[in-house]
Amino acid sequence: MQFDLGLQGLAILAACGLGFGVVVQIFAWSMTRWMWLAVALGWFVGGLFLSEVLFATATEDEIQPIIDGLAFDESLLGGLIGGSLAAVATWFASHGGMFHRPTSV
Description:
Strand order of the largest sheet: 1-2
Number of helices: 3
Order of helices and strands: HHEEH
Largest sheet: 2 strands, antiparallel
Low-confidence stretches: none
Radius of gyration: 17 Å
Shape: elongated
Distance between the termini: 61 Å
Structural class: mainly alpha
Mean pLDDT: 85
Strand content: under 5%
């Protein structure tokens, strides 16, 4: 197995992760300021895993498009899964879970 992900592929993956992180931060109204970073890292790891581990042996004839070693469509799917899981985990961690209720005085 040979990993041939180049700088352009890494930059595309990082840009997609940062974009998704910013969108989640804007729409989630989370109590934490760093939710965008957790979601962006989740997107990056998920996209990298699906592109470079699960589809590492696929050729250009089998999947399209491949941009500088990055299986683009597969990385979008992996990023969406990883970023969504990171967003849900960060949301629950910052809000005290599903059944958190404020204490009455």
